[in-house]
Amino acid sequence: EDEREAVNKDEYSDVLVFAEQLEGEIHPVTYELMGKGRELADKIDQELHVILLGHNLTDQTDEILAHGADKVYVYDQEELHHYNVQPYATAIEDCIKRTKPTIVLIGATSIGRSLAPRVATRFRTGLTADCTILDVRENTDLVQTRPAFGGNIMARILTTRHRPQMATMRYKVMEPIPRVENPTGEVVEFSVSKEKLETRAKICEITKKPDVESIEDADVIVAVGRGIREEKDLEMAQELADLLGGKLGTTRPLIEKGWTEHKQQIGLSGRTVRPELIITLGISGAVQFVAGMKNSENIFAVNNDPEANIFDVAHYGVVGDLYEVLPRLIEKIKNGENILAS
Amino acid sequence: MEILVCVKQVPETKDVEVDENGNLIRDGVDSIMNPYDMYALETALQLKEEHGGTVTAITMGPPQAKEVLKEAYMMGADRGYLLSDIKFAGADVLATSYTLAQGLEVIGLKDGYDLIICGMESTDGDTAQVGPAIAETLDIPHVAYVSSIEESTKDKIVVEKDMADTIEIVEFSYPGLITVTKHVKQPRLPSYKLKLETQDREINTLTFDDLPDDDETNFGLKGSPTQVEKVFPPDDDIEQVMWDGTGEELSDKMYNELKELKMI
Ligand SMILES: Cc1cc2nc3c(=O)[nH]c(=O)nc-3n(C[C@H](O)[C@H](O)[C@H](O)COP(=O)(O)OP(=O)(O)OC[C@H]3O[C@@H](n4cnc5c(N)ncnc54)[C@H](O)[C@@H]3O)c2cc1C
Ligand SMILES: Cc1cc2nc3c(=O)[nH]c(=O)nc-3n(C[C@H](O)[C@H](O)[C@H](O)COP(=O)(O)OP(=O)(O)OC[C@H]3O[C@@H](n4cnc5c(N)ncnc54)[C@H](O)[C@@H]3O)c2cc1C
User: A Pfam family in this protein (chain B) (predicted)?
Assistant: First the structure.
């Protein structure tokens, strides 16, 4: 039993979610945090609150309310227009001091991972990084599970003696919260004095990255490997990708042949992807490839060698000739056939 | 310029295993410098080449973490400090960053450093939190995910940081802290010549008794608000099905399942 001094947990209540926004647009991770936050709050019979920082925030506030927050704490100040870590930490610190939440959730994005540790340090409380599973016990202790060592192990972490309990949560692992019919949440306006928001770090320039067609963002990927015999056969794979609203990914050998491009490469020396669906065609499943896609939600693998390594990670192993399967699958999707499940 | 680089010793491989008691098996696993920290060190060395000054490497860890400082010497660091004490063991991010910040006072850099450089994350705990937490403890600005040094003078630095959706240019006057990505500079190889030259160079060890704060409860396990309750392998008993048959049968099965998953 842990005998170290602990806070009085009853003095803290409710789940506080940090709403990330960029140039007025709410980052989708916010709705995922709210979805998880709502579930945790319900379980301990408490409320879901959201903190929103920025300038001219009417629309964003409405959006948050429309997703069922019980309260939105709004800091509408010019100094907070764009994310800058120290002023943001100060505003969140202010909100935590005023509202004493038991749990604070922040997205494990490049903003959240840099911001959350500053806030946690101010309260000398625990911060669990990059959580993929969150649950709460009756006594309000947050059960935080996160991958470490690049996903090779999982750790279950608790912050039992301190409040608030803080966690950053990985983007795209939890369900976003749906909109509610009749929002009843309340808006609470707070502010911090200008002097407190000062920092020596000056943001000189912000460039939005062009929306490059990145396979990392694709929800669906059709990945091709050396089982594809000729370059023109890629058209078939591309057609399947188009029908599924997805993108074409590739193993390294096809790039070396000059058939596919570097930015499409999945794997250790390429991109890491975790789409909802990936269909691999004629890919053996070398460790270097698998490292880049094994966390995908639904993996279909088509390969005519039943011993292929790809079947160790595939949820659906399709043992067959891709030239037999693919054209027929494409036809079926095109015709929207209703086939009776066999 | 006085530059401090935080380097961490990590297992050489990420393929670690867990024993039946849920402890990480670290025996027989070689240790290396956290790869990102080589980029941090390279950045420091180049700034020193430009502006003069010293580069000090600091690490917190068990006695064998000394090796990582020797590696830093082989790349060109001037001084190395190891923070090591049984009282530091079991530290989470808060206790780690606090101990490292305390170390600064002893090293004599409390009032006289310009820049602290950390890697963007480690390859073992990989929280990416230590850098920002040190900056907060010292109440100085920090910029995380620095992908390039745009400009530096004796008073200030301008850096580019690579965020998911934006690239930003940030300027600050010293002192401050940055954490770097692998785009910032290509690390030099450890040099054999430097190895010979520095093999007798002292590695300074600091223990709990050397630090200004004499409250034990701020360090190690005691000073750590988070507790790792359990470590376990990821759930890899995924549900798997294998299908074989003719092209017609297989395409039917795939089609049905894709429909079931609402992908079509
Ligand atoms: C340091 C290093 C880094 C690397 N990084 C990467 C990386 O990031 N990404 C990457 O992809 N690779 C990487 N590689 C290469 C990797 O080791 C493999 O060589 C590569 O992934 C194999 O690609 P493949 O599966 O397309 O080809 P193969 O291994 O040749 O597999 C082809 C598969 O197609 C099947 N097949 C053949 N004909 C048919 C058919 N008609 N119908 C169905 N199936 C068929 C075969 O049974 C076979 O399993 C790296 C290698 C090294 C050394
Ligand atoms: C499986 C597992 C999960 C963990 N999860 C958490 C967690 O969620 N929250 C938490 O608070 N702690 C956690 N810890 C503890 C944490 O890993 C340690 O506190 C560690 O000392 C610092 O964190 P890091 O490895 O994540 O470093 P990071 O923050 O990822 O490292 C970034 C940089 O900080 C510097 N740095 C980090 N550690 C040192 C050091 N010892 N000496 C010198 N420089 C250093 C380096 O420049 C490094 O590149 C976990 C540990 C394990 C084993």
Answer: ETF
